[in-house]
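Lab notes, practical 5.
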Amino acid sequence: MPLRRKLLKESPSSPSPRGFSVLTRISEIVAEVDQELLVKEEIREKVLELTRIAVRSSSQAINSAHNGDLTTARKHLEKAREAVHQVNSLVEQHPDLKYSGLLNQAHQEFTEASVFIALLEGKDVPSPSELGVMGALYLTGLADVIGELRRLCVDCLRRDDFQGAERAFKLMEEIYSALRYVDHPKALIPGLRQKCDSARRMIEDTRGMLTMVLQRIKLRDSINTLIRKLEES
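Output from the prediction step:
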Protein backbone atom coordinates (compact mmCIF):
# COMPACT_ATOMS: atom_id res chain seq x y z
CA MET A 1 0.00 0.00 0.00
CA PRO A 2 1.40 3.45 -0.90
CA LEU A 3 2.56 5.43 2.15
CA ARG A 4 0.12 8.31 1.55
CA ARG A 5 -2.90 5.99 1.37
CA LYS A 6 -1.70 4.18 4.50
CA LEU A 7 -1.43 7.45 6.45
CA LEU A 8 -4.88 8.52 5.33
CA LYS A 9 -6.29 5.20 6.43
CA GLU A 10 -4.73 5.61 9.91
CA SER A 11 -5.61 9.31 10.27
CA PRO A 12 -6.97 10.61 13.65
CA SER A 13 -10.46 10.92 12.18
CA SER A 14 -10.66 7.17 11.71
CA PRO A 15 -12.06 5.21 14.66
CA SER A 16 -9.61 3.07 16.62
CA PRO A 17 -10.05 -0.70 16.83
CA ARG A 18 -11.72 -0.24 20.22
CA GLY A 19 -14.39 2.00 18.80
CA PHE A 20 -13.06 5.27 20.24
CA SER A 21 -11.66 8.14 18.24
CA VAL A 22 -8.14 9.38 18.91
CA LEU A 23 -9.59 12.71 20.03
CA THR A 24 -11.77 10.98 22.62
CA ARG A 25 -8.79 9.09 23.99
CA ILE A 26 -6.64 12.23 24.18
CA SER A 27 -9.48 14.13 25.86
CA GLU A 28 -9.73 11.42 28.51
CA ILE A 29 -5.99 11.55 29.17
CA VAL A 30 -5.96 15.35 29.38
CA ALA A 31 -8.94 15.33 31.76
CA GLU A 32 -7.21 12.77 33.97
CA VAL A 33 -3.96 14.75 34.11
CA ASP A 34 -5.88 17.97 34.67
CA GLN A 35 -7.62 16.43 37.68
CA GLU A 36 -4.28 15.30 39.09
CA LEU A 37 -2.92 18.82 38.69
CA LEU A 38 -5.96 20.31 40.41
CA VAL A 39 -5.33 18.07 43.42
CA LYS A 40 -1.63 18.97 43.35
CA GLU A 41 -2.47 22.67 43.15
CA GLU A 42 -4.65 22.40 46.26
CA ILE A 43 -1.84 20.65 48.10
CA ARG A 44 0.62 23.31 46.94
CA GLU A 45 -1.58 26.09 48.33
CA LYS A 46 -1.80 24.31 51.68
CA VAL A 47 1.98 23.81 51.67
CA LEU A 48 2.58 27.51 50.99
CA GLU A 49 0.30 28.50 53.86
CA LEU A 50 2.00 26.10 56.27
CA THR A 51 5.50 27.12 55.22
CA ARG A 52 4.61 30.75 55.92
CA ILE A 53 3.48 29.72 59.41
CA ALA A 54 6.69 27.74 59.95
CA VAL A 55 8.92 30.62 58.82
CA ARG A 56 7.04 33.23 60.85
CA SER A 57 6.92 31.08 64.00
CA SER A 58 10.62 30.23 63.71
CA SER A 59 11.49 33.92 63.42
CA GLN A 60 9.32 34.73 66.43
CA ALA A 61 11.00 31.95 68.40
CA ILE A 62 14.45 33.39 67.67
CA ASN A 63 13.40 36.93 68.60
CA SER A 64 11.86 35.72 71.87
CA ALA A 65 15.05 33.80 72.65
CA HIS A 66 17.16 36.91 72.08
CA ASN A 67 14.85 38.79 74.43
CA GLY A 68 15.48 36.18 77.11
CA ASP A 69 11.94 34.77 76.99
CA LEU A 70 12.67 31.09 76.36
CA THR A 71 9.18 30.01 77.44
CA THR A 72 7.58 32.01 74.63
CA ALA A 73 10.37 30.95 72.28
CA ARG A 74 9.55 27.28 72.87
CA LYS A 75 5.86 27.92 72.18
CA HIS A 76 6.65 29.53 68.84
CA LEU A 77 9.10 26.74 68.06
CA GLU A 78 6.46 24.09 68.74
CA LYS A 79 4.06 25.87 66.38
CA ALA A 80 6.76 25.86 63.70
CA ARG A 81 7.40 22.17 64.34
CA GLU A 82 3.73 21.31 63.83
CA ALA A 83 3.63 23.27 60.57
CA VAL A 84 6.77 21.57 59.25
CA HIS A 85 5.45 18.12 60.11
CA GLN A 86 2.14 18.87 58.37
CA VAL A 87 4.02 20.05 55.29
CA ASN A 88 6.11 16.89 55.25
CA SER A 89 2.97 14.75 55.39
CA LEU A 90 1.33 16.66 52.54
CA VAL A 91 4.27 16.30 50.14
CA GLU A 92 5.19 12.72 51.07
CA GLN A 93 3.36 11.33 48.03
CA HIS A 94 4.37 14.23 45.78
CA PRO A 95 8.16 14.23 45.32
CA ASP A 96 7.90 16.89 42.60
CA LEU A 97 6.55 19.31 45.22
CA LYS A 98 8.91 18.08 47.92
CA TYR A 99 12.00 18.84 45.86
CA SER A 100 10.66 21.90 44.05
CA GLY A 101 12.06 24.35 46.60
CA LEU A 102 8.74 25.01 48.35
CA LEU A 103 10.04 23.55 51.61
CA ASN A 104 13.49 25.15 51.57
CA GLN A 105 12.87 28.25 53.65
CA ALA A 106 10.62 26.50 56.16
CA HIS A 107 13.16 23.71 56.79
CA GLN A 108 16.06 26.16 57.00
CA GLU A 109 14.35 28.60 59.35
CA PHE A 110 13.03 25.82 61.58
CA THR A 111 16.51 24.30 61.78
CA GLU A 112 18.04 27.67 62.62
CA ALA A 113 15.55 28.34 65.43
CA SER A 114 15.75 24.80 66.84
CA VAL A 115 19.55 24.68 66.94
CA PHE A 116 19.90 28.21 68.31
CA ILE A 117 17.45 27.63 71.16
CA ALA A 118 19.04 24.25 71.96
CA LEU A 119 22.43 25.99 72.28
CA LEU A 120 20.96 28.67 74.55
CA GLU A 121 19.40 26.02 76.78
CA GLY A 122 22.56 23.91 76.84
CA LYS A 123 20.80 20.94 75.25
CA ASP A 124 22.01 18.52 72.59
CA VAL A 125 21.83 19.91 69.08
CA PRO A 126 18.92 18.18 67.29
CA SER A 127 19.63 16.16 64.15
CA PRO A 128 17.84 16.49 60.78
CA SER A 129 15.83 13.32 61.44
CA GLU A 130 14.75 14.60 64.86
CA LEU A 131 13.55 17.85 63.31
CA GLY A 132 12.02 16.20 60.25
CA VAL A 133 13.98 18.32 57.77
CA MET A 134 16.06 17.44 54.73
CA GLY A 135 19.78 17.08 55.40
CA ALA A 136 20.99 19.66 52.89
CA LEU A 137 18.53 22.25 54.21
CA TYR A 138 19.60 21.41 57.75
CA LEU A 139 23.18 22.39 56.88
CA THR A 140 22.16 25.72 55.34
CA GLY A 141 19.97 26.42 58.37
CA LEU A 142 22.88 25.52 60.64
CA ALA A 143 25.06 28.04 58.81
CA ASP A 144 22.49 30.75 59.57
CA VAL A 145 22.84 30.04 63.30
CA ILE A 146 26.25 31.73 63.14
CA GLY A 147 24.55 35.05 62.46
CA GLU A 148 22.27 34.62 65.47
CA LEU A 149 25.26 33.79 67.65
CA ARG A 150 26.98 36.98 66.52
CA ARG A 151 23.87 38.93 67.52
CA LEU A 152 23.97 37.18 70.89
CA CYS A 153 27.66 38.02 71.22
CA VAL A 154 26.99 41.73 70.62
CA ASP A 155 24.10 41.71 73.10
CA CYS A 156 26.36 40.14 75.73
CA LEU A 157 28.97 42.84 75.21
CA ARG A 158 26.34 45.53 75.66
CA ARG A 159 25.53 43.97 79.04
CA ASP A 160 29.24 43.77 79.91
CA ASP A 161 28.94 39.98 79.85
CA PHE A 162 32.30 39.26 78.27
CA GLN A 163 32.24 35.56 79.21
CA GLY A 164 28.87 35.13 77.51
CA ALA A 165 30.23 36.87 74.42
CA GLU A 166 33.24 34.55 74.36
CA ARG A 167 30.99 31.48 74.63
CA ALA A 168 28.86 32.69 71.73
CA PHE A 169 31.96 33.39 69.66
CA LYS A 170 33.37 29.93 70.38
CA LEU A 171 30.12 28.36 69.15
CA MET A 172 30.35 30.45 65.98
CA GLU A 173 33.82 29.07 65.31
CA GLU A 174 32.78 25.48 66.05
CA ILE A 175 29.83 25.55 63.65
CA TYR A 176 31.93 27.14 60.93
CA SER A 177 34.70 24.58 61.43
CA ALA A 178 32.18 21.76 60.99
CA LEU A 179 30.72 23.25 57.81
CA ARG A 180 33.76 24.66 56.05
CA TYR A 181 34.88 21.34 54.57
CA VAL A 182 31.46 20.28 53.30
CA ASP A 183 32.10 20.34 49.57
CA HIS A 184 29.23 19.25 47.34
CA PRO A 185 27.77 20.66 44.11
CA LYS A 186 25.55 23.71 44.42
CA ALA A 187 22.67 21.67 43.02
CA LEU A 188 22.79 19.43 46.12
CA ILE A 189 23.31 22.15 48.75
CA PRO A 190 22.29 25.48 47.21
CA GLY A 191 23.66 28.51 49.02
CA LEU A 192 25.88 26.73 51.55
CA ARG A 193 29.17 27.97 50.13
CA GLN A 194 27.98 31.58 50.10
CA LYS A 195 26.71 31.24 53.67
CA CYS A 196 30.06 29.83 54.79
CA ASP A 197 31.94 32.67 53.10
CA SER A 198 29.69 35.16 54.85
CA ALA A 199 30.15 33.33 58.16
CA ARG A 200 33.93 33.46 57.82
CA ARG A 201 33.86 37.24 57.37
CA MET A 202 31.42 37.53 60.27
CA ILE A 203 33.73 35.53 62.53
CA GLU A 204 36.74 37.66 61.64
CA ASP A 205 34.80 40.86 62.32
CA THR A 206 33.57 39.48 65.64
CA ARG A 207 37.08 38.41 66.64
CA GLY A 208 38.33 41.93 65.99
CA MET A 209 35.46 43.39 68.00
CA LEU A 210 36.12 41.07 70.95
CA THR A 211 39.83 41.88 70.88
CA MET A 212 39.12 45.61 71.04
CA VAL A 213 36.65 45.16 73.90
CA LEU A 214 39.11 42.98 75.82
CA GLN A 215 41.81 45.61 75.42
CA ARG A 216 39.44 48.28 76.72
CA ILE A 217 38.52 46.11 79.71
CA LYS A 218 42.18 45.58 80.54
CA LEU A 219 42.86 49.29 80.17
CA ARG A 220 39.88 50.14 82.38
CA ASP A 221 41.00 47.65 85.03
CA SER A 222 44.54 49.05 84.94
CA ILE A 223 43.25 52.60 85.36
CA ASN A 224 40.99 51.57 88.25
CA THR A 225 43.89 49.76 89.92
CA LEU A 226 46.09 52.83 89.54
CA ILE A 227 43.38 55.09 90.97
CA ARG A 228 42.96 52.83 94.01
CA LYS A 229 46.70 52.84 94.64
CA LEU A 230 46.83 56.62 94.39
CA GLU A 231 43.92 56.95 96.81
CA GLU A 232 45.59 54.60 99.30
CA SER A 233 48.92 56.41 99.17
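Observations recorded by the TA: Residues 30-133 form a domain with the Methane Monooxygenase Hydroxylase; Chain G, domain 1 fold (CATH 1.20.58.2140). Confidence is low (pLDDT under 50) at residues 3-14.
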